[in-house]
Amino acid sequence: MNKQTTVTAQTRQNLIDAFWALYCEKRIEKITVKEITEKAGYNRGTFYQYFTDIYDVMEQIEESLIPAVHELPPISIPNESIGTPLNMFMALYEQNSKYYSVLLGDKGDPAFASKLKNSTKPIIRQAFLGKYDMDTVEFDFILEFILSAMIGLMSYWFIQGKILPAEELVSLIYDLMENGVMKRLQSKKV
Question: pLDDT, tens digit, for every residue of 11-25?
Answer without folding.
Answer: 999 999 999 999 999
